[in-house]
Amino acid sequence: MFLCRVKGSVTSTIKHKSYKGLKVMVVQPIASDGKDKGDSFLACDSVQAGEGDIVLAAREGNTARQILGTDDDPLHAVIVGVVDSVTVGSRE
Asked: Which one of 3, 77, 78, 92 is CB 3.0 to 4.6 Å from 59, fit for a cystine?
């Protein structure tokens, strides 16, 4: 699971049937201090996240398929939660 910031969304009128009705977001992994960490990736949104939100993203196909209720669809990453706060030690 990754802590990420939603950078934007993807619009695609022609796509695999598995993606019909799903919102695909561009997410940037971040460290607990909010700084970017690694490369951004695409994730299907299961929680109605918005641009700028800090989210929890699972980046493993089987997890994505289980959460979205699909069996063999080509899904790799999914947003599973919107983060209210992060506390590490005594710092928020």
From this structure: 77
Q: What is the pLDDT of residue 87?
A: 87
What 8-state DSSP symbol labels residue 37? -
Q: Tell me how far apart the alpha carbons of residues 27 and 2 are, in angstroms, rounded to a whole number.
A: 10
29 C-beta neighbours (distance < 10 Å), count: 16
Domain limits at 8? 2-82
Structure confidence by residue, pLDDT tens digits, 51-92: 999 999 998 756 655 665 666 666 678 899 999 998 888 766
What SS3 state is found at 18? helix
Determine, yes or no, domain membership for 89.
no
pTM comes to: 0.81
Task: Give me the number of domains the chain comprises.
Answer: 1
User: Is 88 contained in some domain?
Assistant: no
